Structure prediction request, 189 residues.
Amino acid sequence: MNRDGELASPVPQGVRKAASTLKLAGSIGFWLQLILGVLAAVLLLLAVAGLSGDEKRLQGAGFSIFCATGGVLALIASIILYFRYMKIAQLIQISSPDIRPHKKSTLQIIKIGLVVNLVGMLLSILGAESFIGILWGKLSQIPAGAAVYNTSQLPQPNEILLVLANTHTILCHFVGIVIGLWLLERLHR
Prediction:
């Protein structure tokens, strides 16, 4: 009985367990991706700001920057989905089965989150790979054993920062994928 003297329909044990699992995974995924994602976005912004203005350095970097930005945007979408997981967990704990989200729709949202993380990871990998190719091309033009008097031929810190931003975004998406797969496995039981 609740406070008003009415019989409350209890939430089944399995549903409560699923809600707590979803809440835990949503919280961990949200905060890890948010913290790591802010760092990745700041690194990307610093790298792009440092590269802008030098047209010679930017040659061929447009695709890398586009992919890196796409990876960060996918990360933002993933963070929003993890926040939604926490909200779904709250709705699951409601005693009325009419209001409670269905298992099928919850699993579908988790699968969408996995796809978002996979797309973001792919974009970030493409961005990192293409910019590493640009850096390799730059370094391969320096003769072996030659003294370098023109330091513009060497990779600049902002160029390395762009690679770091991409690899950090890859880490964020990896975290999202691992937690999403764990969540799917737990909820399929």
Summary: The radius of gyration is 23 Å. The CA atoms of residues 15 and 148 lie 66 Å apart.
